[in-house]
Specification:
alpha+beta
């Protein structure tokens, strides 16, 4: 799956995840923390995070991550979700360098 096949919101998040994970083998945290980290990366890439397609909530980010599952796998990354006792989703993004 290429970026051309993804919706604009998924493509911009996909690009940001790839950049975030370039020098890391693993990232752990909540969807809200991932969204904050991706926003910083996106701004460095000159992606307009104030536009409509950029996710403004962790819920929207989770929906986009579902769309990106195949794309990320093809690029050597996986995302795992774990729910704790207070129903906070913790995510792990793993990059197989």
């Amino acid at each position: 799956m290429s970026l051309k096949e993804l919706s604009y919101d998924a493509a911009t998040v996909g690009i940001s995840i790839r950049r975030l994970m370039e020098s890391k083998s693993e990232w752990k945290g909540t969807a809200a923390k991932l969204l904050a980290d991706l926003k910083k990366v996106a701004e460095e890439l000159k992606i307009d995070t104030r536009s409509d397609p950029w996710p403004r909530s962790s819920y929207k980010l989770n929906l986009i991550l579902q769309k990106l599952k195949e794309y990320l796998k093809e690029n050597g990354m996986t995302i795992e979700r774990q729910r704790n006792l207070v129903k906070i989703n913790n995510l792990t993004v793993a990059h197989f360098l």
